[in-house]
Amino acid sequence: MTDHRRKKAGAAGENGTSSLQPKPVVTDEEPQFINLRPKSLAEYIGQPEVVETLSIAIEAARQRKEPLDHILFHAPPGLGKTTLAHIIAQEMGVNITVTSGPALEKGGDLLGILTHLEDGDILFIDEIHRLPRVVEEFLYPAMEDFAVDFIFDKGVHARSHRYRLARFVLIGATTRAGLLSAPLRERFGIFRDLDFYSEDELVRIAKRSASLLNIQINTDGAYEIARRSRGTPRIVNRLLKRVRDFAQVRGDGTIRKKTVQEALELEGVDEKGLTMLDRKFLKAIIDFYRGGPAGIEAIAATLQEESDTLVDVVEPYLLKVGFLTRTSAGRKVTEKAYRHFGLPVQQGLFKKPKP
Ligand code: ADE
Fold first, then answer.
1. pTM score, two decimals?
2. Domain 276-340 has what CATH class?
């Protein structure tokens, strides 16, 4: 089964008479989920440089009545890649079709989508680094020349036919830019990394979401959620809903610092936002590999987890907060992480090797 979703977006602001005109909004996602997502760049909190790049590109494309360049977003999960793709569609007033690398198994899967796109439409491919090679090769002429080549027959009878496509915009999202082939990477005109969000930005997101969900939250409560959200808006929104339940059943409905602390202790989320899996990961390196270095496959085998999950979901934040380092010999737990766990730092473990 493949999973491709198409929806129409409404435009913000004025538009000309091209096919990039305002279109009615038809949402196809759970109302609560979509409601928390910002729908315009003006509403978007954080990533100021990315927002500025996009608003300039959108404004310029709209003035010229041309489609945007192809865009590639790289970031760990939950930092806003999909949200930005929907916002871009909304701001340009074009359709967006959503699919993912693993959902496109054959060239024909991609062709079916490409031939239904109209001028300016957006094709969003999540996890684009997992696109099969045959599909990726189909994408090159589609991105560059807005055409696909069909080959009929074989050997001396082989003939090719070029099929023209509409001038669509590809937005790719990846958690692993390094796994993208150079020819694919080079075909994107705009390539942006999304960073973890600052505490202040997460507080603003928590307050915005609380207001949309009609939740009472004070500033200390919002800060406590922000501190435990691993720099990630998606986690803010998830924790907010868990803490709301707790405040409703065990408290007076208002989210305060203490409500957050009690609710998230139950969820296994500690004061730095580390989850059970983060702690298991660090403890495995400490207990089985004397703090490291340890190879990712060995750690994955010890934990019986997929190494992709560890690399994509667990490691980025641990690296960011300095609990983990990656060396050519493998992963190492830092002194800071030992202190976080209240463990004695082993003698000599963190000393620099003698020259
Ligand atoms: N909800 C999730 N991410 C957000 C963001 N970056 N800005 C505003 N609200 C959000």
1. 0.89
2. mainly alpha
Say which of 83, 175, 232, 334 is annotated catalytic: 175
If you classify domain 199-267 with CATH, what class do you get?
mainly alpha
Confidence label for 4 from pLDDT (cuts 50, 70 and 90): low
Mean predicted lDDT score pLDDT of the chain: 90
Q: Which atom of ligand 1 is nearest to the CA of 197?
A: 6
- Of 37, 82, 228, 334, the active-site residue reads 82
Query: In angstroms, rounded to a whole number, what is the distance separating the alpha carbons of residues 20 and 55?
Result: 16
pLDDT band, residue 355 (cuts 50/70/90): low
Ligand 1 center from residue 45 Cα (angstroms): 6
The active-site residue out of 234, 244, 331, 332 is 234
Rounded distance, CA 281 to CA 316, Å? 13
Is 334 known to be catalytic? no
CA of 323 to the centre of ligand 1 (A): 26
- For CATH 1.10.8.60, the residue range(s) in the chain are 199-267
Q: Which architecture characterizes domain 3-193 according to CATH?
A: 3-Layer(aba) Sandwich (3.40)
Distances (CA, A) of 67 to 31, 91, 146, 258: 29, 12, 12, 50
